[in-house]
Write a structure and sequence with these properties.
The complex is a heterodimer of chains A (114) and B (114).
Chain A lengths: L4 E3 L2 E4 L5 E6 L6 E7 L6 E7 L2 E5 L7 E4 L6 E5 L8 E8 L8 E2 L3 E5 L1
Parallel strand pairs in A: 2-11
Antiparallel strand pairs in A: 1-3, 3-8, 4-5, 4-9, 5-6, 7-8, 9-10, 9-11
Chain B lengths: L2 E3 L4 E5 L4 E3 L2 E3 L5 E7 L5 E7 L5 E3 L5 E5 L4 E6 L8 E8 L8 E2 L3 E6 L1
Parallel strand pairs in B: 2-12
Antiparallel strand pairs in B: 1-4, 3-9, 5-6, 5-10, 7-8, 8-9, 10-11, 10-12
Chain lengths: 114, 114
């Protein structure tokens, strides 16, 4: 399968715990994006990497959130001290480094914070 | 700041009937425009995109969309819907240069009546 993959697909955690999600982009794509989608809403942009450099962060990305893409391939998104408001679908997308910004999305990780 | 409005939260269409989903955008220049579809448990799948040139673009699954600069619209159409088209549809706008995340509308939930 050459699409974007995400792991895990579902995560249930207790409030205050830390969680980490992984995204593997399409292999030749050098741009990687994270989005958050809550029920009844469209995806909201969180952050974006060009290779290993994190170039943009949304104001939605609080200090409890951190993302890395250490070797310019896979990426991780960590949420520290989770809150119930963090419950959402976390989507990863990747794209080629062209001006067209056509993004391909993974299946998402659904986070439930109890 | 760019924004996308999808004025219809839900639309119900009979199988075999035609479909039009509305999308209006706000952007300071000519944007890149996208329509994505999301089925339950599935990731976002790109239906079609507009970058430049012909304002009527064809996509997968028999969908098309028309870019109207004067109306800041990018409406999605299909001449005859199938029960399998029932899903959530998202319109999105992206900045030229590809250096930003996409801005999505809140989505339109399409229901197909037999």
């Amino acid at each position: 399968d050459t699409g974007v993959s995400q792991d895990p697909r579902h995560k249930i955690t207790k409030r205050g715990q830390n969680v980490t999600f992984r995204c593997d982009p399409i292999s030749e794509h050098n741009r990687l994006y994270w989005y958050r989608q809550t029920l009844g809403q469209g995806p909201e942009f969180l952050t974006y990497f060009q290779n290993e450099a994190q170039l943009e962060k949304s104001r939605l990305l609080s200090d409890r959130f951190s993302a890395e893409r250490p070797k310019g391939s896979f990426s991780t998104l960590e949420i520290q001290r989770t809150e119930q408001g963090d419950s959402a679908m976390y989507l990863c997308a990747s794209s080629l480094g062209t001006a067209y910004n056509e993004q391909f999305f993974g299946p998402g990780t659904r986070l439930t914070v109890l | 700041a760019q924004s996308v409005t999808q004025p219809d939260i839900h639309i119900t269409v009979s199988e075999g009937a035609s479909l039009e989903l509305r999308c209006n955008y706000s952007y300071g220049a000519t944007p890149y425009l996208f329509w994505y579809v999301q089925s339950p448990g599935q990731g976002l799948q790109l239906l079609l995109k507009y970058f430049s040139g012909d304002t009527l673009v064809q996509g997968i699954k028999g969908f098309e969309a028309e870019f109207k600069r004067s109306q800041s619209s990018f409406n999605l159409r299909k001449p005859s819907v199938h029960w399998s088209d029932a899903a959530e549809y998202f319109c999105a706008v992206g900045a030229r240069g590809g250096a930003d995340g996409l801005t999505f509308g809140k989505g339109t939930h399409l229901i197909i009546q037999p």
